[in-house]
Every structure is written in C-alpha cells, then in structure tokens.
Design a protein that fits this description.
The protein has one domain (11-207): LmbE-like (Rossmann fold), CATH 3.40.50.10320. It has helices at residues 21-36, 52-64, 87-100, 116-128, 157-170, 182-195, and strands at 11-18, 41-48, 70-75, 105-109, 133-137, 151-154, 203-207. Helix 1 links the parallel strand 1 and strand 2 (41-48). Helix 1 packs across helix 5, helix 3 (87-100) crosses helix 4 (116-128) and helix 5 packs antiparallel against helix 6 (182-195). The longest helix is centred in the N-terminal third of the chain and has 16 residues, at 21-36. With 213 residues, the protein is of the alpha/beta class. It is 39% helix and 19% strand. It has a 7-stranded mixed beta sheet with strand order 3-2-1-4-5-7-6, with helices on both faces.
C-alpha cells in the first residue's frame, strides 16, 4: 500500500457539525499529528453546540489539543438537523475562517453521510477550500452509511485509548445512546486497521477525493 507522509502539514482545520463529531471521526488522527508535529497549529470549529453540549465540546477540544503549539477553539449555535436551511450563514462562517486561517489540511465530514448537517459541511468545505488537502472522516450510526474509504491513518492503541476515554468522559449527555460505547469506537478503528494492514492493528479512515503530488 502506498504511503502518504504528512510532515509538511503545519496548520489543520477540524470541522464538526456537532459536539462530538471531530473526536469520533478523526480524534486519534489529530492526536497523532500533534504528537509527530510539535509546531502544529489547529483550528477546531463545531457548528452546532448549545448549552451543555457547548460545554462538552469546549472541554473535549481543550483536552485533545492540550499538547498543540497553537489552538483556536470555536463553537457556534446553528440549529441542529437544519443545516440545509442555514446554508448561507454557514457559508459566511467558512469564508470568515478562510480569511483568517490558511490550513494545509482540512478534516471534514463524509460527503455521502446520510446526516444532512454532515453533508452540508462537506459540501462547503470543498466549495471553500479548493487548493487544500481535504480529507473526509466517517461517523458510525444507525443509518449504516459507512463506505469504502481510500485514505488510512494508522494509530497506536495508546492513542485509540486516549481518544475513547476522552469521548466517554467529556460527552456524558451521549452515553445513554445505544451506539455511543467504547466497543463501537474500537470496532471501527480495528476494521480500518485490518483494511490497511496497520502495524498497530488500528487506524482511522478518510475519503481523499482529490490529491495532487
């Protein structure tokens, strides 16, 4: 399997529709990048986080990014499940971000995700960041919309454990959901690890629609 190195990545934009999306989809990858790139700058943006969910999102982001050289954490209050109706406002936010932060890597949500909020973010990420490396992460859920990703980032068991511990600790409002369990998160990382023959046995997977070398 061909290997893509991310040593040139200095700035990363992490986009999530909801409070726990970034952590679920690419949390271990973010931890690995911070570990391997001491000078990394991260912009962590959650579009729908209100009340307790906003507090959870901020606490989790601080935890995940605590070892980063520079971090910017922002939560917004767009109405959950109504992102298609909020298109123009969300687009304005993307343009504001673009003017203030020039990412080398954009981590966003999977374009074919069945959740409408996730699709809006993916579409606008591609619409806004046309000359950037964009990788789309995946979220396991009831809809059963997991696909066949083409980019894999192996992660260690230690980083997987840190990701999952943080998810369960910070997002107490979600622990009553039948799918929000350590087993779910381990299972997906293990399956993706098998698919890329990860030496650690674990990986997070992404969709890289346009890659230029």
């Amino acid at each position: 399997m061909a290997s893509l190195r991310l040593h040139g990545v200095k700035k990363v934009l992490c986009l999530g529709a909801h409070s726990d999306d970034i952590e679920i989809g690419c949390g271990a990858t973010v931890l690995r990048l911070i570990q391997e790139q001491p000078g990394l700058e991260l912009y962590w943006l959650v579009f729908s986080a209100v009340g307790a969910r906003a507090r959870e999102a901020k606490a989790s982001a601080v935890d995940f990014l605590r070892d980063a050289r520079a971090r910017r954490i922002r939560t917004m209050t767009y109405r959950e499940s109504y992102f298609p109706d909020e298109w123009s406002g969300i687009k304005d936010t993307f343009e504001q971000v673009k003017r203030s932060f020039a990412p080398d890597l954009v981590l966003t949500q999977y374009r074919n995700d069945r959740h409408q909020d996730h699709r809006v973010l993916s579409d606008l990420a591609w619409n806004t960041f046309r000359n950037h490396l964009v990788l789309e992460y995946e979220i396991p859920k009831y809809d059963g919309d997991l696909g066949s990703p083409n980019v894999y980032i192996p992660v260690s068991r230690a980083l997987g454990e840190r990701k999952i511990r943080a998810l369960l600790r910070h997002f107490q409002s979600q622990t009553n959901r039948h799918w929000f369990t350590a087993d779910t998160f381990w299972a997906l990382m293990r399956l993706r690890g098998i698919e890329c023959a990860s030496a650690t046995g674990f990986a997070e997977a992404f969709y890289g629609r346009k890659l230029s070398f």
